[in-house]
């Protein structure tokens, strides 16, 4: 549960740089507990993969905006808002499921760390 919630706290604390703060908490939890707690290992990797995926999407949206000299913001800003809302909802759902002892899998996530 803390792996998922640490992403939420990191995102809220870093504000505009939420893509960076979101994966530091799950990374620290995963590095500390990966050998001793299999459930925490699984869920921290899941939270880490989800937040890295969203950071990649955020960078892609930013690049699209910059490449189009700001005109792409007409598309990227609404998409970014929707992704931000989805991030919040999925993170809360994951924390609740993990608290209940269920393994949660985020949708549309690149499994970069296995």
Search tags:
single chain, 114 residues, mainly alpha, 5 helices, 74% helix, elongated
Descriptive report:
- By secondary structure, the chain is mainly α.
- The protein has one domain (2-99).
- It has helices at 2-14, 18-21, 24-33, 38-67, 73-99.
- Helix 1 (2-14) packs antiparallel against helix 3 (24-33), helix 1 runs antiparallel to helix 5 and helix 4 packs antiparallel against helix 5 (73-99).
Helix fraction, binned, reads over 70%
- Helix count from the secondary structure assignment: 5
- Principal-axes geometry comes out as elongated
Distance between the first and last residues' Cα: 19 Å
- Unreliable stretches (pLDDT < 50, length at least 5) are none
The total domain count is 1
- Beta content comes to under 5%
What is the residue-averaged pLDDT? Answer: 87
Report the C-alpha radius of gyration, rounded. Answer: 15 Å
Please give the number of β-strands: 0
Listing every helix as H and every strand as E from the N terminus to the C terminus, the arrangement reads HHHHH
Largest sheet: none
Tell me the structural class: mainly alpha
